[in-house]
Design a protein that fits this description.
Elements lengths: L1 E10 L2 E11 L4 E6 L5 H8 L7 E6 L2 E2 L2 H4 L2 E4 L11 H11 L4 H14 L15 H13 L5 E5 L7 H16 L3 E5 L3 H7 L2 E6 L2 E7 H7 L3 E6 L4 H5 L4 E6 L4 E5 L5 H8 L7 E5 L3 H12 L3
Parallel strand pairs: 3-8, 3-9, 6-7, 7-8
Antiparallel strand pairs: 1-2, 1-4, 4-5, 9-10, 11-13, 11-14, 12-13
Helix pairs in contact: 3-4
Length: 299
């Protein structure tokens, strides 16, 4: 288990991370979210023991993270970190050696992973000749060549088409099943919802929302009703408890203050003809994220 306990980090007078705490169990995918500059990268660097917190502590399986433990950690960065003039094989031999792996182990695992990611033919190709998507595959392989017990994924789907996103998803879920603790960070909230059981949202280095995703959605008061049929937008907007109404191509999205106001909307819908759909949905993580970040910034 990774434990981040009351961690604070300053750069001079600037507080980048403010009393942050969370834990990630074995076989759990945890979401660390926030806008640019929220403190995510600083948190990753502290977990990797690249920088020290000013206060608090970070442990993995009850041990302080040092160079012995970092051999068990994988990190896929948002920015490209590949040595593009090397071949894929040369790159993996370099990264594997940094993780204290012998050459035979690296090459055996590399062949298996290249096949899994459907790029075996690129083993002896220079990285700068590969497409952006295939470079992302190589970067992912470099993050898991050491079969990490803790894996940090920062925007792992960057540059990928939908088919390869599905491939990455399947590999991530396989790692979860094997017991890897995974920290997942992305600006795509729909991707976060696919994976993360727990999450924390950072604003200016401080947690503004944390917990299990299912509980966060349940506790968020604003609900959404989807209506398809013969209704009038202005009439919906006048109903008590309705916050807003959005007309889409084939439906109306009605946001209400909380679930108790759904009966008011339903009473109106019953008076209309040709209503083919009336469904109350949980809010999306993106809606919650925008609301919570907006609250933190006073918007």
């Amino acid at each position: 288990m990774l434990k981040v306990e009351n961690v604070t980090k300053y750069y001079g007078d600037f507080k980048a991370v403010d009393n942050l705490s969370f834990d990630v169990d074995s076989g759990e995918i945890f979401g660390l979210l926030g806008v640019n500059g929220a403190g995510k990268t600083t948190t990753f660097r502290m977990i990797m023991n690249l920088i020290e917190p000013n206060s608090g502590k970070i442990t993995f399986n009850n041990k302080k993270i040092d160079y012995n433990l970092t051999d068990k950690i994988g990190f896929l960065t948002e920015e490209r970190s590949l040595l593009t003039k090397l071949t894929v094989k040369e790159q993996m031999l370099f990264y594997g050696a940094l993780k204290s792996l012998d050459e035979d182990t690296i090459l055996r695992r590399l062949d298996k992973l290249l096949k899994r990611f459907e790029i075996s033919e690129y083993k002896d190709r220079k990285i700068n000749t590969l497409s952006k998507g295939n470079q992302q595959k190589v970067q992912f392989i470099s993050a898991i060549i050491n079969e990490p017990k803790l894996l940090i994924l920062d925007e792992p789907f960057s540059g990928l088409d939908p088919i390869n996103i599905e491939l990455f998803k399947s590999v991530i879920l396989e790692l979860k099943q094997k017991g890897t603790s995974i920290i997942f960070s992305s600006h795509r909230m729909d991707h976060v919802e696919l994976f993360c059981e727990k999450l924390v949202i950072l604003v200016k280095g401080k947690s503004v929302l944390e917990g299990y995703l299912k509980d966060i959605k349940k506790d968020y008061k604003i609900k959404k009703i989807i209506i398809e049929g013969d209704v009038v937008k202005k009439d919906l907007e006048k109903i008590e408890g309705v916050i807003s109404v959005l007309k889409t191509a084939c439906s109306y999205e009605v946001n209400i203050r909380d679930e108790s106001y759904s009966k008011n909307v339903f009473e109106y819908v019953k008076t209309r003809n040709n209503v083919t759909k009336y469904v109350m949905e949980e809010p999306s993580l993106e809606e919650i994220f925008v609301a919570k970040v907006g609250e933190a910034y006073g918007k």
